[in-house]
Structures are given as structure tokens and as C-alpha cells.
């Protein structure tokens, strides 16, 4: 009976996923559970944060989105143009 060919399976397979992508679903689920638990334990704090608005926009959410957008733009700029040490720095317009 044949074993299926001469390919060797001695080499370990390297995962194409980076450290951040591994078990991301588990980390997201744990963060959701922690948020729900903290909301149940300290509802007054979460009501105070939710009431902090400007033009019907929650300021914590707006700040977090702005920071994430800046990080994404900066990473794309660094990836595309490399280290700006020898040329003009990347312009990021948030």
C-alpha cells in the first residue's frame, strides 16, 4: 500500500498569521464579556461616560475613532514611504 507520495512532512509549518491575529476572536469575546461585566458592576460610571456628548456624538467614541484613524494613517505612511529620517516626514491629516 502506498503512503501517498514522496513529500516530506518533516518541516514545521509556519503560520501566516502574526501574533496579533492569533486567537483574535477569543480576545474580542473576553473584552466584550469584561465590558458587560463592568457595565453591570458600575452602571453610574458608564452612564456618566455616555452622557459626555457634543452634537449628539459621544466624545469617548469620537476620540477613540480619531486615534485609530491616526494610527492607521501613520502605519500606511510608514509602510509606503519607509523611515522618514532621510526625507520630509509623512503628512498625516486626521
Strand content: under 5%
The CA-CA distance between the termini, in Å, is: 65 Å
Helix content: 40-55%
Please state the overall shape, judged from the principal axes of the Cα atoms.
flat
DSSP strand tally: 2
Radius of gyration computed on alpha carbons: 23 Å
Q: Which stretches are low in confidence, meaning pLDDT under 50 for 5 or more residues running?
A: none
| Alpha plus pi helix count | 3
Structural class: mainly alpha
Order of helices and strands: HHEEH
User: What's the main sheet like?
Assistant: 2 strands, antiparallel
List the topology elements.
Blueprint: H1 24-41, H2 43-51, E1 53-54, E2 57-58, H3 59-81
Describe this structure as you would to a colleague:
The chain is mostly helical and 94 residues long. 53% of the residues lie in helices and 4% in strands. It has 3 helices and 2 strands. The radius of gyration is 23 Å and the shape is flat.
Can you tag this structure with a few keywords?
94 residues; mainly alpha; 2 strands
Summary of the model, kept short:
The chain is mainly alpha-helical and 94 residues long. The protein has helices spanning 24-41, 43-51, 59-81; strands at residues 53-54, 57-58. The chain is 53% helix and 4% strand.
Amino acid at each position: 500500500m502506498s503512503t501517498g507520495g514522496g513529500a516530506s512532512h518533516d518541516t514545521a509549518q509556519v503560520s501566516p498569521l502574526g501574533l496579533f491575529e492569533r486567537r483574535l476572536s477569543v480576545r474580542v469575546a473576553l473584552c466584550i464579556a469584561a465590558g458587560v461585566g463592568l457595565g453591570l458592576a458600575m452602571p453610574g460610571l458608564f452612564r456618566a461616560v455616555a452622557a459626555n456628548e457634543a452634537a449628539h456624538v459621544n466624545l469617548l467614541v469620537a476620540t477613540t475613532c480619531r486615534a485609530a484613524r491616526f494610527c492607521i494613517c501613520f502605519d500606511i505612511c510608514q509602510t509606503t514611504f519607509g523611515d522618514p529620517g532621510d526625507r520630509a516626514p509623512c503628512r498625516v491629516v486626521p
